[in-house]
Write a structure and sequence with these properties.
The complex is a heterodimer. Chain A folds into three domains: 130 residues, Rossmann fold (3-Layer(aba) Sandwich); 96 residues, Sec1/Munc18 (SM) protein, domain 2 (Rossmann fold, 3-Layer(aba) Sandwich); 97 residues, Syntaxin Binding Protein 1, Chain A, domain 2 (Alpha-Beta Complex). Chain A is 49% helix and 16% strand. Chain A is built from 15 helices and twelve strands. In chain A, α14 runs antiparallel to α15. The relative contact order of chain A is 0.07. The longest helix of chain B is centred in the first third of the chain and has 26 residues. The chains are: A alpha/beta, B mainly alpha.
């Protein structure tokens, strides 16, 4: 009966939830502690304490504004000196490492406690027993803990369908070190948190001749089974529902395709990253009114629409858009507005660029 | 116009992108990316624009023509594609091409380190272009195991 009920309820999950959308899934997942754990347990304002890794994970899909909505007044770095707020609760988002836990314990040992009596601890990945023992041993901390949750979200949501494990040096370690077991285990751990967040229990496939892929595949499968065994409430796509089966995790290393990184690609995103100076996803542009910083991320709808399109197509579409704006505005402002004149000149410039581009492309792709 | 703030916002976004794209086009023009891409495509696919199969001799000629004027990053890309697509080049040829380019010693090392990605960087006899170590090409030939 229970099985039947849950099957029925899953039928009514809106379709967008089932689509593989890293960003969306992460946002839902990141909101969970604030929506479900915190409101019931604690009514007041809170301080959020993060370590470096957690800050990256959080900021990849949540802004300070959204945190404020969840009654967080302040976000602080666990490694820095923090001012005490004895009348507020505290929520820690940390990588479960010994140094981090030592710092939490230090906050609550001694005569003067740093924060109030409500402590919430969320760990990014599965917490080792040794760390748990350590927390248990500190009584002044233990009696204050309201929630201790393995939060399982140890990766950065880069784009709606791209995630990043945030391990820049791992390429070198994987290919140069004779025994990269530590890195492989780290990658596997993070991939398990990805599966947990996306609610996927994937079929794992790997490149046969790559010992790295093989090692990681084995570790992921082992850790994922461990995770599923330990979390009875957890469900995955394809568990009850036959319309969409289980997903596949395909593990391939760079040796499979060494050519692509060398090639120039003509999509807007690839070209921009090749030729312009980015700082992360920030770019500074020169406009008529001086230079200006623009963020090219998930919030920029124009960027989202055009980043995977051919540069020529982008110019084409932008011109159309500007013409449309000019037309709309002409109707509303009777053509007497200054910005309207600006727009006309702008579309003229665009038109000339467009012509230039067309000639370029005719020359190049006339095959 | 002032009645529609969302329109103003959308327009300023489009405007920003217009500046970015025009900057991009200027740079593409000044760095002659289109010509470069043509050679890259030819080397990667083993065919020229008219779908004629390229001989190794033609490719080397093209490289010898382009390499001297290129900045080191682009030269690195071209030589990388050359080595990968040929699955290794002879030592003399490599020295010759390195000599022509403006590669720093680190960048030369980078190319030789492709060996770690199981790319052959060196070979003795000369072969025709045409074999790409592309992802899909290899997928076809080999089954994947669960």
């Amino acid at each position: 009966m229970l099985w039947y009920v849950s099957k029925m309820s899953l039928r009514f999950v809106p379709s967008y939830v089932r689509i593989f959308q890293v960003c969306h899934a992460v946002k839902c997942h990141l909101n969970k502690p604030f929506l479900f754990f915190l409101p019931d347990a604690f009514p007041g304002w809170m301080v959020l304490v993060l370590d470096g890794r957690a800050t990256k994970v959080m900021s990849s899909s949540m802004g300070m504004y959204e945190l404020m909505e969840h009654r967080i007044t302040l976000a602080e770095d666990i490694n820095k000196d923090r001012a005490p707020f004895r009348d507020m609760g505290v929520a820690y988002f940390i990588d479960p490492t010994e140094s981090n836990v030592d710092k939490i314990i230090a906050d609550f040992s001694g005569k003067k406690k740093k924060y109030g009596d409500d402590v919430f601890i969320f760990t990014l990945s599965a917490c080792p027993d040794k760390i748990l023992e350590k927390v248990k041993a500190c009584r002044s901390l233990l009696k204050r803990i309201k929630v201790f949750n393995e939060f399982n979200c140890d990766f950065l949501a880069k784009e709606s369908r791209i995630f990043d494990l945030g391990m820049k040096s791992c390429f070198r370690q994987l290919f140069l070190e004779p025994d990269p077991h530590g890195v492989e285990a780290e990658i596997a751990k993070k991939l398990v948190t990805l599966c947990a967040t996306l609610k996927e229990y994937p079929i794992i496939r790997y490149q046969e001749d790559s010992k790295r892929s093989k090692a990681i595949a084995t570790l992921v499968s082992q850790k994922l089974n461990e995770f599923v065994g330990n979390s009875p409430d957890w469900w995955y796509h394809g568990m009850y529902d036959n319309t969409r089966g289980r997903s596949t995790l395909l593990l391939i290393d760079r040796s499979e395709d060494p050519l692509s990184p060398f090639m120039h690609e003509f999509t807007y995103q690839a070209m921009a990253h090749d030729l312009l100076n980015f700082e992360g996803n920030k770019i500074s542009i020169e406009t008529d009114k001086g230079s200006k910083d623009v963020l090219l991320n998930m919030d920029d709808k124009v960027w989202l629409e055009y980043k995977m399109k051919h540069v020529a197509e982008v110019v084409d579409n932008l011109t159309d858009k500007l013409k449309e704006f000019a037309k709309n505005q002409g109707v509303e402002s009777n053509g007497s507005n200054q910005t309207f004149e600006e727009l006309v000149s702008l579309s003229l410039i665009l038109f000339s660029i467009y012509i230039y581009l067309i000639s370029c492309y005719l020359a190049t792709f006339k095959e | 116009m002032w009645q529609k703030p969302e329109l103003i916002e959308a327009m300023s976004k489009v405007n920003d992108h217009y500046y970015i794209v025009s900057d991009l086009l200027k740079k593409m023009g000044s760095q002659s990316i289109l010509d470069l891409a043509k050679i890259e495509q030819a080397m990667a696919t083993g065919q020229d624009e008219n779908k004629h199969t390229l001989k190794l001799k033609n490719v080397v000629e093209m490289l010898e023509e382009y390499l001297p004027g290129l900045d080191s990053e682009k030269a690195l890309r071209l030589l990388g594609i050359f080595i990968v697509s040929q699955s290794g080049i002879s030592r003399e040829q490599r020295e010759e091409l390195f000599e022509l380019s403006t590669l720093s010693s680190d960048q030369k090392k980078t190319l030789l380190n492709l060996e770690y990605l199981s790319v052959k960087t060196e070979k003795c006899e000369e072969e025709e272009v045409g074999k790409t170590r592309g992802f899909f090409a290899r997928l076809r030939g080999r089954g994947y195991v669960v």
